[in-house]
Amino acid sequence: MRHEIEPTEHGPLGEAMAAAVSKCVHCGFCLPACPTYQELGQETDSPRGRIMLMKEVLEGQLPVAQAAPHLDACLGCVACQPACPSEVPYGDLLSSYRATKGAQQPRRLGSRVKRFLSAATLPFPGRFRIAAWSGRLVKPLASVMPSSLAVMLQLLPDRLPAKVKLKSRYPAIGKQRGKVALLTGCAQSVLAPDINVATIDVLTRNGVEVVIPSGQGCCGALSWHVGDHAAAKKFAQANLQAFPSDVDAIVTNAAGCGSGMHEYPLILKGTGSESTAVQFADRVCDVTVYLDQLGELTGFPDSSRSRASVKVAYHDACHLSNAQRVNQPPRSLLAQVPGVQLAEIIGGQFCCGSAGTYNIDQPKIAGSLGRQKAEQVIRTDAQVVAMGNIGCMTQIEQHLNKAGSAIKVQHTMQVIRDAYLD
Ligand code: SF4
Ligand code: SF4
């Protein structure tokens, strides 16, 4: 698409945004893939429409405020990317746009409060734990609270699991086949610490030594995807320092975090750390990708051969499937688990509505997508729905509960680990 964006006017991310806009040929192949276009039915809420809006703002033809509602309604699910024959890097464009123009966007008080609370608590496990405990106490009053706070309270679980303190190193069991450093995540480590426990268990049983770098922090994805570039840079810089170089890979077990860490070269563009960030991002991979490349899963006990058959529906988290193009490895690993019978979810390519803090910022669209996803999961007739992202787990569990379904929501690593324990 022809444009008159002057990249140098928009800081270090200007070039990436101009290049992405140039690639779009306005063909519209992305429209059927876009959940918000399906929900809202307007060109301005489609990928093509949003690219046009961003182009016009960056050219100085359109006020930021006019484009804002449509860009805020974008999930950032990047389902438009695999659908695009011109390979427009929509995710890079959207994140860069939000980082560059987000601060100029006018926001209501309720939205500012939600954003402040999310930014001040979610990336910090200690603070998030205190906030989650306090929130649970006032959760019964959610219905009489301002809607901005009620939405956040409703997402809190009724019970918080006990804190799990991880060691700095877990040796491989049996013959060593590899060594990785694990990103333990922030909100995930509070809401579902068992995911890290299961991940370490599966890796070590497959001959992989796991190190947990002590200086690691939030991956920065939550900040980056809502346009807080300064915070995202800080988190990225800290992780570049914290993770060691003497490992085969830096593994993640949350799709959003893995995707965010792959974006470090863009987040740190124009800084002295850009080339380090490129090398770092090359070493990041989802735990399922690492295990799949290692070979077949090993060490299931003989007793697991007689496990009762369990139907497991696999949910593709957008930031694993669309952003990192990881589709086959989790399915291939689950298919090796004794007793597991894999099921596909109809419309599986559509986002569940979680999308980072989207279900806090845009509860109406998120609720609709969550309901539809829960309905499709129920239609599979599975006993378990597995996935690789804590945000999707929270969202899907909430909507399955609302629908009265007893389908168990598990992380892919938990499904595999359970077969080792049988
Ligand atoms: S499919 Fe790609 S090139 Fe076509 S309109 Fe969508 S983003 Fe642009
Ligand atoms: S990121 Fe998702 S919601 Fe946003 S335009 Fe692309 S497909 Fe639509």
Detailed description of the structure:
- This protein has helices at residues 14-23, 35-40, 47-59, 64-72, 80-83, 90-101, 109-121, 125-138, 147-155, 187-191, 194-205, 221-225, 229-242, 255-262, 264-267, 274-283, 287-294, 318-321, 328-335, 358-361, 363-379, 390-402, 412-421; strands at residues 169-170, 178-182, 208-211, 249-252, 284-286, 310-314, 340-344, 384-387, 408-411.
- The protein is α/β, with parallel strands linked by helices.
- It has 4 domains: 7-104, Alpha-helical ferredoxin (Fumarate Reductase Iron-sulfur Protein, Chain B, domain 2); 109-155, no CATH class; 169-292, Glutathione S-transferase Yfyf (Class Pi), Chain A, domain 2 (Up-down Bundle), CATH 1.20.1050; 300-421, Rossmann fold (3-Layer(aba) Sandwich), CATH 3.40.50.
- Strands 1-3-2-4-5 form a 5-stranded mixed sheet. Strands 7-6-8-9 form a 4-stranded parallel sheet, sandwiched between helices.
- Strand 8 (384-387), helix 22 and strand 9 form a beta-alpha-beta unit.
- It is globular, with a radius of gyration of 21 Å.
- The termini are far apart.
- The model has no long low-confidence stretch (mean pLDDT 92).
- The structure holds iron/sulfur cluster (SF4) (2 copies).
- Residues 24-30, 47-48, 51, 80, 84, 86, 88 line the site of one iron/sulfur cluster (SF4).
- Residues 14-45, 65-94 form the 4Fe-4S ferredoxin-type domain.
